[in-house]
Design goal:
Blueprint (H helix, E strand, L loop, with lengths): L1 H31 L6 H19 L3 H24 L7 H23 L4 E2 L7 H18 L5 H23 L1 H11 L1 H6 L4 H27 L1 E2 L5 H14 L4 H21 L7 H13 L14
Antiparallel strand pairs: 1-2
Length: 304
């Protein structure tokens, strides 16, 4: 039972990362009906921005996180305006191919700019009062349950919950959030009601890219190593998480990410680590066969 609880805790921590990345997929799909396959590479760029902010500007953890989120928010706007907006009236296939091209551009550009070799991420940044509090919480959990959770994993879970909760409140309660929901429901009608749809679409890229950057920084603290293709597999798995939860649905992306992380660690613990990546695509096949709209998704009538 302790082993199961241990795998469950680790799966929730890793699933929180998938959830943060999946939110970007689901927000962009909600307003544009576009799968932004470059999103996983934004996660990679966020990790590298934080790395250079720490290494050369001697930024602390919080400052590096904010800088990475701001840098990737700007990158998200550039991608939307430079690659996707000019193709908005074109067939979806053209936009999809462009998304794959942007992904390859970021991966190969990252190798040229940052170098192909992995770089050690300074995980010792987690110090001071925050580290002491997380270590105390980790020790308390271990004493009461026997489950060992590293302070980095606790930080990932806590930060992800705060960001996901904040996003949900933003979308549900603010004027901009209501505009996002309006554009997602019917872009044409939202435009007729005076909503600047271009601004709202850019805003979704800003939010999604910032969350992906946060995930990249938090993961780098735990794995202590970054490289230019580190976003490839997490990006694909986060896409599966978004589909699993119901792409276009924010709570669904959160649920799908957590389920994906738990499933991955249970497979590693009880079957084999060789199937760690395969389980994501097995889940994708199953969900597409049994419930294509995802766990929280609802069928919709397509207008023709």
């Amino acid at each position: 039972m302790v082993e199961f609880a241990q795998l469950l805790a680790q799966g929730i921590a890793w699933g929180s990362v998938y959830a943060l990345i999946a939110l970007g997929y689901t927000m962009v799909y909600g307003v544009l009906r576009l799968i932004n396959f470059a999103h996983g590479d934004v996660y990679m760029v966020g990790a590298f921005i934080a790395f250079y902010a720490i290494t050369y500007a001697h930024a602390g953890l919080f400052a590096a996180l904010v800088i990475a989120m701001a840098g990737c928010a700007l990158l998200g706007v550039i991608i939307e305006r430079g690659a996707y907006r000019p193709l908005r009236a074109h067939p979806r296939l053209a936009v999809l191919i462009t998304a794959i091209g942007v992904s390859l551009f970021l991966e190969n550009g990252g190798q040229l700019l940052f170098g192909p070799q992995p770089k050690p991420f300074p995980h010792e940044l987690l110090t001071g009062g925050l580290a002491s509090g997380l270590a105390s919480a980790s020790a308390a959990i271990e004493r009461s349950t026997g489950v060992i959770i590293a302070k980095e994993q606790l930080l990932i879970i806590a930060a992800a919950l705060i960001m996901m909760g904040g996003l949900q409140l933003f979308v549900a309660k603010t004027k901009a959030g209501k505009a996002i929901r309006a554009v997602a429901a019917d872009r044409g009608a939202a435009s007729l009601m005076g909503i600047n749809t271009d601004t709202i679409i850019s805003l979704t890229f800003v939010i999604g890219s910032a969350l992906a950057a946060a995930a990249g920084v938090l993961v780098s603290l735990e794995v202590a190593q970054i490289d230019p293709i580190m976003g490839l597999m997490p990006g694909l798995k986060a896409f599966v998480a978004a589909v699993l939860g119901g792409i276009g649905n924010i709570p669904g992306a959160m649920i799908g990410g957590i389920i994906m992380g738990i499933a991955e660690y249970l497979v590693v613990g009880y079957i084999s680590s060789s199937y760690r990546d395969a389980i994501a695509f097995a889940i994708l096949i199953i969900i597409l066969l049994l419930k294509p709209t995802g766990i929280t998704g609802k069928g919709a009538v397509e207008k023709v």
